[in-house]
Specification:
Length: 243
Amino acid sequence: MRFHVNIDHVATVRNARGVSYPDPIELALECERAGADGITAHLREDRRHMRDEDIEQLRAKVTTLLNLEMAATKEMTAIAERLRPNVITLVPERREERTTEGGLDVIGQRIAIEPVIAMARRAGIRVSLFIAPDSDQIKAAKALGVDQIELHTGDYCNCTGAEQARELRHLAEGAKLGHALGIEIAAGHGLTRQNVVDIVKIPEITELNIGHAVIADAIRTGIKQAVIDFRAAINLGLSRRSG
């Protein structure tokens, strides 16, 4: 199970005071040293957290894997083509949202997505689509020929009891379908050390992208211990996989 840490909210804290600290690049490298398999960062159109120079420094200094989350726009496509991260993850983006509020509409946004995929193929960049565990969206992702889909776990994380169990089944069904179609399956959004365990038990999921909860834990424990604690929670879920 690959564990990638999203460091956006290190930049959120920095930008709140308009100073140079905490430094998201420094924290990213600490995450790597603590055992993270990769670093994820979202360069939003409004630059509310990560900035262009942050992504440039990450590309130069990250030694594991750099996953650039971005909207399917001409501006972001040009940035990705120039910097060549290992992976780009296409996500929906609205200026008024607090955080990404749902999966990408692959069917409705196909015309915008296709040129990004074409660029990535030329540049040797892997492409992931951040989508809801919806069968039609998963099949549309397959038709576009992407390497990976990242299933949006926000609905699962935002409910409890029977509703959460239903969302977990929905995610498991989506992961199974995507895997059967030959697509690699990742998951992310809203995951914590508590709710990640059941997500990890889904056998088709091979990668997690987790940010806010890691940074929140780091306020209490420091970033190194936060990464170690999340890895322990992931390993607990792996130990409970059936079969």
